[in-house]
Amino acid sequence: MDPYAALRIREFNIFLGARFAMVFAWAMQFIVIEWQVYSLTKDPLSLGIIGLMEVIPAVSMALFAGHIVDQREKRNLLIKCLFGFSVISLGLFVLSWPDLSTKVSSKTILWSIYVLVFFGGIVRAFLGPTIFSLMALLVPKKLYPNAATWSSTTWQLASVLGPATAGFSISLIGVHWSMCLIFCCTLIALTAISKISRKPILNPKIGEPVFQSLKEGIQFVFKTKAILGALTLDMIAVLFGGAVALLPIYAQDILHVGAEGFGILRAAPAVGAALTMVGSTRFPLYKNAGKKLLFAIFFFGVCIIVFGLSTSFWLSVGALFISGAVDGISMIIRQTILQLKTPDHMRGRVASVNSMFVGSSNELGAFESGATAKLMGTVTAVVFGGCMTILTVGITTFALPSFRRLDLRKDIDEYAVTE
């Protein structure tokens, strides 16, 4: 297969550019918020609260959002999501104004940040399913694996540059102007998406009652063992392997590397994942996908343990880099499973369930890491998370033997024949 096949489609390239700007802004914003909040409180639990404030609306509205996405035109819906994101970024820019701290208490600023993060969770509930559904309308089905790889690679590249830029920009221009840069990126993404044409609504059940629609989506996920296994495995691994939420503590109090080192640590997993994804365009991962996913998450847990115990900056960077590389394998396989196994008219609802299982587990993992760090100490909390990830792989390996044998070559061959 041509490794650049999806890139030869103009609107898919525009989509990738918009996604890069959007993820870059989102990743950078989260890092800047983490830094500002921990600087205000010096409390590890406050880092967990950031994740909790975003995950509550993201989870509670996810299924409803999936129903709306399946009922609406995807391009315009994405424009509305990006507009909401830009308003939130503008609000954070105002809250980080240096003169504001002399007029408003730190507690007021802190809770105002939490409120904006909460509204960001609402936007994210719609954002993930909309992006997933729109991408499927931009490329032929036979190119789904290739498109999913490039889309995930773009996501990871933005995740590399976003945190790294955040770390250095905090040091060079401060939190306030870093927020300004984030706001500009949201406007770039908004402009790019407007260049994509409106797409048809493929759902034959327009106007279907909400609860009936949600029931159908949930039943599909639980009946499709490949999707259920991939989502469950990744959710638990991410939930207990959320060590990145504690990176401000490692950078400031354990490794003593400051904002620049924090940016490097935060970017290291994304660098590893991005390299894995670029390589996967030439060496596809759909053969023996189940076994590869299990091995990837096992080694992810090992890397988290090494990072938790390390007192060397470069060993920590290396452990995070490898964790990102194997996590990249997991992400590509999971996205390929979702694209190949999901019917067009159910993409929004399935993507919403995915966001509940996996996407939101990042924030729940952040809260879990912050809470366990408060209770048992930072290092112990990270090592505990890595051990739980490895335990999850062992349970899944024996509990779901059909998942171990999962191979996606047949699905890809069928699409190639039909198109």
UniProtKB/TrEMBL annotation:
Major location category of this protein: membrane
Keywords associated with the record: Cell membrane, Membrane, Transmembrane, Transmembrane helix, Transport
Transmembrane segments: 12-33, 45-65, 77-97, 109-138, 150-170, 176-193, 226-251, 263-281, 293-315, 375-400
UniProt-listed Pfam families: MFS_3
Location within or outside the cell: Cell membrane
Membrane topology: Multi-pass membrane protein
Designated name of the protein: MFS transporter
Organism (species): Maribacter arenosus
